[in-house]
Specification:
This protein has three helices and five strands. With about 150 residues, the protein is an alpha+beta fold. Strands 1, 2, 3, 4 and 5 form a five-stranded mixed β-sheet that branches.
Length: about 150
């Protein structure tokens, strides 16, 4: 057991950080040489995903009505040290100059799940019927048992 342990210690002393780092840089250099000049060239027209910068106001058009837009501002909450998104009310018109335009999906990615109920201009439209029932989306559970007093 002593011989095994002493050989193990000798191998560990021969290993050093500079040799492994040299090997790592040679491997990376070979990868760069095989792929070209090391720059990434996108073949797709799809815009790359990016994270919204803190303190910059972004605007996007509401998905349900293109005549309205909203703005979003990302800031850090000083108490929790978490990113917080501030979303404006819908505004009629065009996004002003100097405000970067993003898609609603990009804004949705920055928001916490509790705030993402809807990015529409009017999230709760009582006149729109989703189920084919009542125009107010009521079902039998919302109606009183005794309808005589209505």
């Amino acid at each position: 057991m002593k011989g095994l342990h002493s050989r193990y210690l000798q191998r560990q002393t021969r290993r050093n950080f500079s040799r492994s780092m040299d090997y790592y840089t040679r491997v990376l250099q070979n990868v760069v040489e095989q792929t070209g000049d090391g720059r990434s060239y996108s073949q797709s027209d799809v815009p790359l995903n990016f994270r919204l910068r803190e303190g910059v106001v972004y605007g996007f058009y509401c998905p349900d009505n293109e005549n309205y837009y909203r703005t979003i501002l990302i800031k850090t909450n000083i108490f929790t040290q978490e990113r917080q998104s501030l979303l404006s009310n819908p505004v009629w018109g065009v996004i002003p100059d100097g405000v970067a335009q993003i898609t609603p999906d990009q804004a949705l990615k920055e928001m916490k799940p509790t705030n993402t109920s809807s990015l529409n201009t009017f999230p709760h439209n009582p006149l729109k019927s989703n189920s084919g029932g009542s125009p107010h989306n009521l079902d039998q559970n919302h109606l009183p048992d005794d309808l005589s007093d209505l």
